[in-house]
Amino acid sequence: MIKLYSFSSSGTKSVFAFILHLCTDNQELILIKDDVTNQLPFLKLKRWQWWVLVAVNIFFLVAGQSAAVLLGRFYYDQGGNSKWLATLVQTAAFPVLFIPLFFLPSSQEASSSSRYPSFIILVVVYFVLGIILAGDNMLYSVGLLYLSASTYSLICASQLAFNAVFSYFINSQKFTALIFNSVVVLSLSAALIAVNEDSDTPSEVSRWRYTIGFICTLAASAVYSLLLSLMQLAFQKVLKSESFGVVLEVQIYTSLVASGVAIVGLFASGEWKSLGGEMEAFGKGRLSYVMTIVWTALSWQVCSVGVVGLVYVVSSLFSNVISTVSLAVTPVASVIFLHDKMNGVKVIAMLMAIWGFATYIYQNYLDDSKVRKLQSDVTESHDDHS
């Protein structure tokens, strides 16, 4: 089924193909084309401008995620043990997002539009997304506690396979041979890590805890994929806004809810009582403890901006694929900074992940080229009619 509100590149291609196929009358073509263009603001950008916007969000995602994972593993290696604190820092720095939001021009038109959702609907959307985000962050915290940074990152590649399924059913994402290849290769990459008997584990972590870490990371990848698809659906069906300020608002308020849940968990579990002792016993000292927490929180927010930005600009599946770029960054960085082992199985898994990522990027390039050509045909038809 063709969705006219889809933000994905393949969905956009279907929109214009549908228009060109059904609309033979020039006037009708112009009316529909103008309506679709209003719904897809990024098609108004020049091709190089769109790619620059995508590249900026990719940098935020990859750099933020890689730094956050390394710092999270460093926290555990140096004596940190609070899973709820590790969950909280993934969203706690959301107030910094008010800075760019403050400088963005406000849109009175968007706020006064009859299509703008009511306050109650917004609260429900942010609350549901925030609860899911909090649960997902907790699963990731447990996974990173029992896995090395490189193993953790490679397992996270499985999120692409989950997201492909969710995007198909929730966001009407179409499958092509290249996308299918990307999903299969990345899934096999994660499977290699699962059966790798020589996977390095943090000190004093048993094989049983390694299995728990693997299962939690795999489950977190599935929940994260569902979250991205639901976020894209919220942009399409509920928010219906062209402002990037709305993207920041979604990140701010869902992070607020997730942080609230993490704080409740921190106090309800009693882990808050041990934080003072953690700081004193931290391997690199008290100042290092504080700076680790602060920079981990900031890194996760940078990553989140990239994630949400790519969901809005392209699609949830594309955002998820870009997350796997860290597979080429985090394992290598963890070997350099955290002295993780990089055995042959990990190298093969990383190369497979890179190959899967490359095939999807190429598919997105083909889709983008077709969309631009179809858009040009529509514009020429409009000019001929005029």
Number of helices: 17
Structural class: mainly alpha
Low-confidence stretches: 1-40, 107-113
Cα distance, first to last residue?
A: 32 Å
Helix residue percentage:
over 70%
Order of helices and strands: HHHHHHHHHHHHHHHHH
Number of strands: 0
Q: Please tell me what the overall shape is.
A: globular
Strand content: under 5%
Mean pLDDT: 76
Our Rg estimate from Cα atoms comes to 22 Å
Structure description:
Helix content is 76%, strand content 0%. By secondary structure, the protein is mainly alpha-helical. Helix 1 packs parallel to helix 17, helix 3 (47-77) packs parallel to helix 16 (330-337) and helix 8 (149-155) packs antiparallel against helix 16. The longest helix has 42 residues, at 344-385. The radius of gyration is 22 Å and the shape is globular. The relative contact order is 0.20. The model is unreliable at 1-40 and 107-113 (pLDDT under 50).
In short:
The chain has 386 residues and is mainly α. The protein has helices at 9-22, 26-39, 47-77, 83-88, 98-103, 108-112, 119-146, 149-155, 159-170, 177-195, 207-239, 244-268, 275-281, 286-313, 316-323, 330-337, 344-385.
What would the keywords be for this entry?
386 residues; disordered N terminus; 17 helices; mainly alpha; 0% strand
Task: Please outline the helices and strands.
Elements: H1 9-22, H2 26-39, H3 47-77, H4 83-88, H5 98-103, H6 108-112, H7 119-146, H8 149-155, H9 159-170, H10 177-195, H11 207-239, H12 244-268, H13 275-281, H14 286-313, H15 316-323, H16 330-337, H17 344-385
